Amino acid sequence: MSGRDRYANSARGPPPRGGPNYNDRGYNPSRSAPPRGGGRGGRSSNNDDYSASNASSAPIDPNMPDWWNAKKKAERRQREEERRISVREENERTKMGYGARGNNDGDGGRGNARVVAVNNGAGDDRYSRKAGAEGVGARQMSDFDDTKDKNSALRKKIFMDGGAGGGAGGDDRLRKIATADEELEGRSLMDLVDRGTLMVGCCLILIVVIAVTIPVALISEDEPYVAPPVPDPPSASPTMARQQVYWDIFDRVQRIAGGPDVLGDPNTAQNRALNWIVFEDGMELGPGKDHLHQRFVLMVIYFISGPWTPVEGRLEWGSPVHECEWEGITCKDVEELEAELEGKISELLESGREDGVKIDVPQRIINRLELRQRLVSGEVPGEFSLLYYLQHLDLENNQLVGALPSPLYKLFNLQTLFLEQNQLTNIDAVGEYRYLEHLSVSKNAFQGPLPESFKQLKYLKTLYLHTNAFTGQVFDILKDFKKLELLDLAFNKFEGTLPAELGEMSNLTSVFLGHNEFRGTIPAEIGRCPNLKEFQIDASHKIGGPIPTEFGKLPNLEFLKLDTCAFNGTLPPELAECQKLYFLDVNSNDLGGRIPTEFGKLGNMRTLGLANNDFIGGIPAELSQMAQLEKAYFQNTDLDGVMPQEICNLRDRGNQTVLEELIVPCDVECEIPTCCTRCS
Q: Cα 537 to the chain's mean position, in Å?
């Protein structure tokens, strides 16, 4: 049996150290120690009964009068109450985290065990114990011994402090401790926070509340609250719904997609376009939509050659709107196109492509497709030919390579084809575009003679072939192009002479023949082109002879560039009849004689280039009548004399056009820089 159990079952508990103290109210020989764990949660009814009876009936000294005993009892009760208050406050501090700690006595190094009594209401004593150390060793004592000894010692201290002149000092110390503990007791975390910090936090919270409340109030005033619409009830899964029409759409498009094998192959653009139409397209077209085929073909083209560079602010291909709204696409109604083509569209739509492939014709037909500068790459998709009613196709400035695919030549209705600035190498079958009016294949990688099929392009109005490596006698093919308006053959290796048939191209407005290997002269028949505005043949050293006076018969001529050739003779005065002429450049030829005074009538002249020739005499004062003149070049000639003051006056004309550059031979007397800009 343990010592604790033995004492609990005995008639008397273990005696306190130093003998029993019968005056100590904490000692009760008729009761045992509280059960383990009872120091905090249990009550001792025996203790309550004993305390009540003993406080009321036990005399202090039987030899003294009753009034004296009553007074002493009152003083004892007061001290006991103060002791209980002190112990209770000590326990409250324990709860706040101080706990019971063992301290060493500084005099003898003796370890003391600190006893904390927890009271719950007046008159309730509960006990707990923490073992202390004595000397260098530690000895575990029983709960009963420890509790009794420490309570006795505490009561003795209170009694001694309160008696024989020391009571007042002890009471003061107890009151000070109680007062300090009361100040801490019940104080919350907010009481311990610095007041300045608290004020700053409150201000920040107030600012946040105001910042949120005011905008909400303003929005509420400008836009009154509108209750949201009641949502529709859940519908069937979109994916499941679209799967139901997958095979219907598959059947509808397989005949224009190359067959079921191509359409079902996940590696083909056709399969990607099908899946996009069925599962990704926001339009969610059904198999009966009239523009299903048209939308499918466009997406096949996109998946073959895309993705492309987007255009900011424009609807890109694949947007959930009608394809006619996509960037670079222009559509027309069938009726409008029918009237424009004078009935040809009906025949075309009924027959389809030449190989019999037809697509369902929508009400809104794509007639113009512009993909300029979109970085379309690879070979030109043959699927363009499925849009066989297309009239205008612009693929300029992209990354296309190779030859035009043969199906593309089935665009019989095509009128405009722009393929400039790519890396194409072959357009041998271009003649298949029988109605083509505008063709540009400049800045590609074409070589060799012009394909014979060009002869079939009888409707051509504009032809751009510049900056390639074409060779041969081009006019053997082009001389019969009666409708031609613009011809640009510059920067190639064309040979031969300029034919008289140029005069039969009466619709010509612009001709650019420079940087080739033409030889001979400019045919006088050029004067039969009354609409001609621009004529340029430069850097062609085999072209020479006199400048045709027939240029003077061209009333609309504005631009004449004949520099760096082998022209000789004199400047024809007839050029002064070209009243619209604003640019004349005959630099670097073998021209001589005097500058015609008639040139003074060229009132629109802005650039006059006569340098690097053999002109003689002085600079005519009549040139001062060129009121719009901005640049004049006379250097490296045999001109001499004095620069007319009238021409110098063109250098300073207030807010009017100013002669910016005036370069003369150094033999001409001219003030530099007030009049001439420099001499050479």
A: 49
